[in-house]
Design a protein that fits this description.
Elements (H helix, E strand, L loop, with lengths): L1 H25 L3 E8 L4 H19 L3 E3 L2 E11 L6 H13 L5 E4 L3 H13 L3 E4 L5 H5 L1
Parallel strand pairs: 1-3, 1-4, 4-5
Antiparallel strand pairs: 2-3
Length: about 140
């Protein structure tokens, strides 16, 4: 009788490992990139559409090589509403870096909003690449 109990335990262990193992490696590591901009305006939708095109092309080729691993790109959209409200822009940036835990942020347009968004990114040690603003001071920071 003990022999059958041992066989059942071994069988169950093989089933658990056999079923569970593919799931462990199934989720590819991703690089989370936040795309922030005035998404209700052409400026923001253009940023988003460009990011989606780049993500699709890169992921179709297997992703980005980081060290010896391939990582896929995941995009997170954030509406900064910066043309109307600097406070909305800072809230959107804060949400990207704290709640969504992005690795990088791309976007931004209006200088008045870019300064505080850049400060938030620096505070959280997240790389922020401004895509629309050409203020010399922002570029030198």
């Amino acid at each position: 009788m003990k022999k059958w109990n041992v066989l059942w335990v071994i069988l169950v262990a093989f089933l658990v490992v056999g079923i569970g193992f593919p799931a462990w490696g199934a989720k590819a590591k991703t690089i989370k990139i936040g795309v922030i901009g005035p998404m209700k305006f052409m400026l923001g939708t253009g940023m988003w559409n460009g990011a989606v095109m780049a993500r699709d092309e890169i992921n179709a080729k297997g992703g980005v090589k980081v060290g010896n691993k391939m990582m896929l790109i995941e995009l997170i959209q954030a509406d900064s509403n910066e043309l109307s409200s600097v406070a909305d822009a800072t809230n959107a940036m804060e949400r990207l870096v704290t709640r969504d835990k992005v690795n990088f942020v791309l976007g931004g347009f209006r200088s008045e909003a870019m300064f505080p968004m850049q400060d938030i990114a620096m505070e959280h040690k997240v790389i922020f690449i401004g895509c629309g603003c050409s203020n010399v001071e922002l570029c030198s920071r």
